[in-house]
Design the sequence.
């Protein structure tokens, strides 16, 4: 499922409502950012909770001793949190007591800190009777450049969660408004800090077993949220492209790919067209969109996307290309992917 984040300094109810209509389910927020002035929290919080309820957004607050203090309730008074409307808790501390976990599951869905949970913890918790059907693992995000996780380490961490069928969540940065005070993005994986968040989300889902992706920063473009939600829910991959004249009709279709995946190209499933004119036989960059011409015989009319750079071929016309910011999506196109080409805005 799709998630967003909101911080009181950047709070924008119009953004929250629009994101919810696009399919956002979770709203992460933190109540212990030292740089945020929370002196007016008692005035802001009732409206915030009511709006999130109206938008059907499940608030995901970090739970720590500071959280209870900021919310004005007694330490560990989870009943008060339930009355305030919280349905989901992200536990940053104190979840080694499995009896506490089981008690909290009677009233809340739980998210554990994926950075400090290993397979032995899962085995011990299951042996103690903990039901993981309502527990997710939520990774941290890393505000400062160079402090995020490596992709390989991240994959290794997730292997145990995947083996046990546990929902696993991670963050990608926003592409509209970065969060204060560093404004350097809030990814889980360091390599995603400067990447398009949609491309980063696809990599987390396709390659790392992540089930839910949240925008860590204050805002993302609505198209980014739409693309992420559609990929998570329906495996529809929106790909911004440029087409040459005569192929704009490709924007209006949902394309599937052949189930026998080729090494060098992605072959679009469509009726072939004999007698395609020979033209634009250019060098094929990674992410080029091509159509086979009449020199290809019975392959004439087959449309392909190149996975890597390849030389010019007289049998192959270049009819378009993927926007450079999105070209890495080709690595995640598999037999179950449905492709929606979109115009570059």
Sequence:
């Amino acid at each position: 499922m799709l998630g967003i984040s909101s911080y009181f300094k950047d709070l924008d109810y119009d953004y929250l409502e629009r994101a919810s209509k696009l399919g956002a389910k979770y709203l992460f927020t933190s109540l212990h950012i030292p740089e945020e002035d929370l002196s007016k929290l008692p005035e802001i919080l009732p409206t915030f909770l009511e709006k999130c309820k109206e938008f059907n957004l499940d608030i995901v607050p970090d739970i720590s001793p500071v959280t209870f203090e900021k919310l004005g309730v007694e330490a560990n008074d989870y009943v008060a949190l339930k009355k305030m409307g919280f349905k989901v808790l992200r536990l940053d501390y104190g979840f080694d007591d499995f009896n506490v976990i089981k008690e909290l599951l009677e009233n809340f869905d739980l998210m554990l800190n994926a950075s400090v949970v290993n397979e032995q913890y899962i085995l011990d918790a299951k042996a103690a009777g903990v039901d993981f059907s309502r527990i997710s693992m939520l990774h941290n995000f890393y505000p400062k450049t160079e402090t995020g996780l490596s992709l390989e380490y991240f994959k290794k961490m997730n292997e145990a969660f995947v083996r046990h069928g546990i929902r696993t969540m991670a963050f990608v940065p926003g592409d509209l408004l970065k969060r204060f005070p560093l404004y350097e993005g809030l990814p889980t994986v360091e390599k995603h800090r400067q990447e398009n968040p949609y491309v980063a989300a696809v990599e987390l889902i396709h390659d790392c077993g992540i089930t839910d992706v949240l925008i860590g920063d204050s805002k993302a473009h609505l198209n980014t949220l739409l693309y992420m939600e559609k990929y998570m829910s329906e495996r529809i991959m929106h790909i911004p492209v440029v087409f040459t004249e005569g192929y704009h009709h490709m924007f209006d279709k949902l394309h599937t790919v052949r189930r026998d995946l080729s090494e060098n190209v992605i072959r679009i499933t469509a009726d072939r067209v004999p007698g395609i004119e020979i033209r634009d036989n250019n060098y094929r960059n990674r992410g080029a969109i091509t159509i086979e011409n009449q020199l290809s015989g019975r392959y004439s009319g087959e449309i392909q996307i190149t996975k890597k750079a390849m030389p010019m071929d007289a049998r192959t016309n270049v009819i378009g290309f993927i926007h450079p910011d999105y070209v890495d999506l080709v690595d995640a196109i598999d037999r179950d992917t449905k492709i929606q080409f979109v115009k570059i805005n």
About this structure: The mean pLDDT is 95. The two ends are 26 Å apart (CA to CA). Residues 161 and 168 are 7 Å apart (CA to CA). The chain has nine helices and 15 strands.
